[in-house]
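Lecture 7 notes: from sequence to structure.
We start with the chain below.
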Amino acid sequence: MLAITNATIYTPSDSHADTAVLIQNGRITKLCPTADLAIPTNAQLIDAAGHLLVPGYIDLQLNGAFGHDFTADPQTIWPVSAKLPRYGVTAYLPTIITSPLENIKRARQVLLEQRPSAYRGAEPLGLHIEGPFLNPRKKGAHNPAYLQAPDTAHLAGWSPAGGVRLVTLAPELPGAIPVIETLAASGVVVSAGHSMATYDEAMAGIAAGVRYGTHLFNAMSSIGHRQPGLPGALLSSPDCVTGLIPDGIHVHPALIKLIWSAKGSAGLNLVSDAMGALGMPPGKYILKDFEVTVTDKDSRLADGTLAGSVLPIDQALRKLISYTGCSLPEALATITTTPAKLLNIDDQRGQIAPGLIADLLLLTPDLQVATTIAAGEIVYEQT
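Predicted structure tokens for the same chain:
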């Protein structure tokens, strides 16, 4: 049992000062003014005075961290997950990029069959499968040797229950529409990305079940005033959430401000798209089959192609506020309620309310992560 008192709570919908939260068996059981909370004698007490209490962050695209790459070695998902709370991540989608289909099967097995006993850390909610159904002309840092045409025959077991939550594909490829329809019917979020789709091709994909766009503007057709392409379709479709890497490198800050105006907090989802160098010093790292040169700002292949990022999700939040001038509750939605609703888990995570899983963060006034609570347990404390 855990009791938090004197908290200033910020959620995507509002804020409350001098509030208390009682947590038992991993869930929030009570939310009330601090003066009204009778603290059980067996409860661990956290005085949150001087801190902000916010929901835990959900990252829908993370390729690895701390020197480990999920695609190269899916076994590293659990040790990386245990360390991610330092960035405020309490739930996320380990991302497997284009690779042999057998590798995706192994990653699913790691999630479903190899959970460590007494595990503590960020919860991997299922895989984000980014490829192999991508357009070779927008492959980015994906190995073209493993790209395949979309085919429903490859989708056996691809469902949330089978360890797959989100799939990125190019909707214009032959065979893509039946794959989109099959995945959407099984409860998988289908995303358009690494694509040369025209506006009409993108809209056909959205009609078939696409509900997300992977790292908007990156590795996709360009937007034009007569040829809006995939970005135009995503930005103008109210039912589509757009993923964005807000490091100021993948997308210019001025354009981030325009994206915010178009989509707002309910239609924008910040992702890290971090690769194995997250949390590590600059140097040479691996993204599946390729060597990546990492600086303190970005990660690139030898030809200069951006290869993921080294952006932690808590920094993404701060950058969005800086670039757009949005409020903290608005920014929080992009990494809490918006991804939770997209994944259809908003009745479990993404808010601070009785009955929900107790994924919570204490932030300093400048929005640095001080304490992370995952499923009711303290899993990170700033030293």
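Points to note: The mean pLDDT is 96. The first helix runs from residue 77 to 83.
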